[in-house]
Sequence to fold (126 residues):
Amino acid sequence: QVQLVESGGGLVQPGDSLRLSCAASGRTFSSNAMGWFRQALGKEREFVAAITRSGGSTYYADSVKGRFTISRDNAKNTLYLQMNSLKPDDTAVYYCAARGLNYPGISATMGEYPYWGQGTQVTVSS
Fold:
């Protein structure tokens, strides 16, 4: 079982940067592939980025590639999402999610993540 708590959201202007964190409880964090998803008001939740257990491989949605960076610190049981050059279209609630222990690979599919945080709001507006 993994419990996830996101933080770091807020209101920023277009072009600004923000770093989200996701603190994981339990002793299995380093054994879970992780991902970030987001859900804008009135829209379906969508994939943002994913990372393998070791952090050696990452994968991004086309909409954030080159602007966002996913990373993890297994010693601190923490997942990060560095967001640069933010746009109004990035406004959403951002969720971190963990895959099960038997699934080490990267996935962009929500249904393959059984563990979710409560989300943190990111608003990009001038």
